Amino acid sequence: MTIHSPFDGTAVGKTYEASSEQLEEAIAGAVQAFGELRCMPPEQRREILLAVAQGIQERKEEFAKLMVLEAGKPIRTARVEVDRAIFTFTLAAEEAVALHNKDEVLRLHTDLDPGSPVRTGVVRRFPIGPIAAITPFNFPLNLVAHKLAPAMAVGCPVVLKPAPQTPLTALKLAVLIQARGWPAGALNVLPMSNAVAVKLISDDRLKMLSFTGSSTVGWQLKSQAGKKRVMLELGGNAGCIVCEDGDVNEAASRCAAGGFSYAGQSCISVQRIFVQEKVFAQFVDELLPKVRALKCGDPMDEATDVGPLIRESDAKRVEEWINEAARGGAHLLCGGKRIMNGRGIEPTVLRNTSPQQRVNCEEIFGPVVTVEPYGTFDEVLQRVNDSRYGLQAGIFTKSEKYVARAFEELEVGGVIVNDVPTYRSDQMPYGGVKDSGLGREGVRYAMEEMMEMKVLVGRS
User: Is the pLDDT of residue 111 over 60?
Assistant: First the structure.
């Protein structure tokens, strides 16, 4: 299979699709490797994880440029992703030892249970076993790292299906991990067709499925996973609230960044902006010049802010959603046209949209935001929640009361205060509710998902 640049269609490199026989070999190898990994001391796992982080650091520019070529990610953004991946592996190295030492001791003879003999219990977590992982194109290094680093930290082998658009970055990382001492069979990266990949879901030797991708696919896979533990990190149409007491200029700057970074191809990209009506005109006046100033074009150019979409078909889809909104009465404040020989979309701002239009109710996954005024805080909370998604939300305010209510009432996995919902730090718990997913990523939290809890009880 030949991988092509989303920007100009040129060939980036070649790799191969795995056969069903090769997938079987990978699964069998992972099962065999689990016996070795579960006995590996956490200090040794820590050393290997740190060596991987160091290896990525030494090849930082190689990884960044490869992501530019196969993912169309602007070079400055790609370098940030490399830094995040280094941090992800470093964090996993420390957690490999820390979580291993977190036995919970129980005293089981208490005033609440006076008839019980005196007993002492210890709760410990053990690795669940071989893991099936499926990753998307938009963060081809760090989202792969969020599958591999926690699994390595707890001692779980992985069979990974990378996105068909961006397998080269995952393969490059896998070669590095193997070279740093990770046991044979413990990591298997196989580009493969969906037909072959069915075995990842159906094979009971794989004890967990960790999937990042679209909501439609994720929930379908869960329905087919049987007894497997399933962790889903899915889509969103992130809402951002700008209150009357918020910093309007800062909110506009951050929304211009959070809505259009990597052409909006992030599940926590700003999509729906709600601005209190007293400051709505000021916010729009601040936002539009910042959006128009974004530089679109060659992602290898150091000055580029917005590159192409991953496929021309996605650019056509986003253009159709914009036109659909316009036909329904929305006002196009800026952007809206296809650029880069049809492979990209101008950064686009819409207003007077309706909640039923796809630019609002679906995940657009493109460089488009809608901006609408609101009256009361009760109203805006309801409007943010009026979505089948619930990944993250942002709020700009100085009011502790507003923050407390947003945290209590917004139906999301994370609320980001005085910043956009696009913010993510790799150590925080990350995931959503409703159609946005199941379980939590973030290194320590993913590690806990990849482990089984067991209790040992002794009678004195």
Answer: no
Distance spanning both ends of the chain, measured CA to CA = 63
Distance CA 70, CA 193 (A): 18
Q: What is the pLDDT of residue 454?
A: 93
For tokens 């980036």, what's the residue? 12
The residue among 92, 72, 88 whose CA lies nearest residue 169 is 72
Nearest alpha carbon to residue 89 among 142, 33, 130, 159? 142
**What backbone torsions phi and psi does residue 459 show, to the nearest 5 degrees?**
-100, 130
Q: Residues 26, 28, 29, CA angle at the centre, nearest 5°?
A: 60
- Residue 117's CB: how many other CB atoms inside 10 A? 9
Structure confidence by residue, pLDDT tens digits, 364-396: 999 999 999 999 999 999 999 999 999 999 999
CATH 3.40.605.10 for domain 2-234+436-459: yes
Radius of gyration of the chain (CA): 23
Pairing between β-strand 338-339 and β-strand 344-345 as defined by DSSP bridges = antiparallel
The continuous run of DSSP H or E covering 256 comes out as helix 248-258
Measured CA distances, 42 to 32, 46, 103 (Å): 19, 6, 14
Burial code (b: 16+ CB inside 10 Å, e: under 16) for 134-156 equals bbbbbbbbbbbbbbbbbbbbbbb
- Pairing state between β 331-334 and 272-276: unpaired
Q: 170 CB contacts (<8 Å, ≥6 apart)? A: 135, 140, 141, 144, 160, 162, 189
- CA–CA gap between residue 355 and residue 350 (Å, rounded): 12
Q: How does pLDDT run across 180-233, given as a tens digit for each residue? A: 999 999 999 999 999 999 999 999 999 999 999 999 999 999 999 999 999 999
pLDDT of residue 459: 76
Is pLDDT above 70 for 112? no
Residue 448: left if φ>0, alpha if ψ -120 to 50, beta else—which one? alpha
The pLDDT of residue 244: 98
CATH topology of domain 239-425: Aldehyde Dehydrogenase; Chain A, domain 2 (3.40.309)
Q: What are the residue boundaries of the structural domains of the chain, listed by start?
A: 2-234+436-459, 239-425
Which H or E element spans position 25? Answer: helix 20-37
Q: Which sequence positions are flagged as catalytic?
A: 233, 267
